[in-house]
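[stage:ingest] chain + small molecule (S-adenosyl-L-homocysteine)
[stage:ingest] validated
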Amino acid sequence: MTTGASVFGPAQPTPLEARIAELIREAGPIDIATFMTLALGHPTLGYYQSDVRLGADGDFVTSPELSQIFGELIGLGLAAAWQAADGPPVHLVELGPGNGTLMADLWRATGRLPGWPEALDVHLVETSGRLRRRQQDRLAAIERVQWHESLATLPDDRPLLVIANELFDALPIRQLILEADGWHEVRVDLDADGRLCLGRADELSALSDGLGREASLEGLAEGSVIELSPARDAMMAELAQRLRDQGGIALIIDYGELEPTPGSTLQAVSRHRKVDPLTRPGEVDLSSRVAVGALARTATALGLTAYGPVPQGSFLSRLGAELRLEQLVRGASPATAERLQLGHRRLTAADAMGELFKVLAVCRWPLTPPGFLPEEVLR
Ligand code: SAH
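[stage:predict] done
[stage:export] tokens:
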């Protein structure tokens, strides 16, 4: 038993829980975004500074870790967009590259396309020093790679080809709860034993200004929770401005619904199991569902063209996932063939990641992004 209370009494607080408790005792309860920022990003005790276990034998598994097909097809898709735009010099950017697997697969699959490797510089935006070192090892074969803490230092002289898989779900959210007099912020507080618990602010939240006008919020019962993410909106706006000014295309892939739905979706995962998000901060991964349609609107409001969001399964099939699977399985050992088929199934099947994960394309170039249909344009 590793979580919460056991027959031996409550688990000891993690070092980061002790720090957060100290902060709350000194300065009062904190909002969920502050809690997430500390739990994931604390410079020494945050989850992303720990030995992040990303992959089949770790805490959680992402699409690039499930199958090489994922990074390969995204690479071919981005390269096709680049070719359709007459192959200009570009910067290839990945946001939140994790183990570096997607970029490694992308690079291997596209490396022989005429003119492509020479046309690119690779830029990885990564906040975790630990994962950055992992990416450095993994991508040692790529000549021109630079790392960045944020989008702010990306060069501004060329169009951008951008990929972000499961980045937005890790960005901090805030939660509001509806009471008789309106929306109050959900906060992390201390219970009578000094352990972290959820509470709410006494005062109304300024974040809720204008919320009542949203049709999807009408008729919500008292006690309903909604999630907002100024951090996601800001990242999307910065990306959209870059694309507007520099040209290019971004593919954003994440799990969630098109529109925000009421209810808390904050989740913590450890060893593929969901655990209480407040227990063991620093030792478990935290994420929440992304309202992908809202990201699209942020981009279109800035004058960009957005496509989708389409379910990941359809997107990958349109890019040739089944053909690629067939190619790989031919000549593979039975064990490898089975692993490849299972990986493909998990990426594309409706009861796995095929429907829950959505792909959004944001584009400045006058073309339909590979994997999308012309009628899937949003304006
Ligand atoms: N894209 C990878 C990893 C997903 S985990 C995959 O699909 O396997 C989330 C990644 O985003 C990690 O690499 C994490 O360190 C990084 N990250 C989290 N917040 C970030 C931020 N604000 N800017 C850039 N990277 C961030």
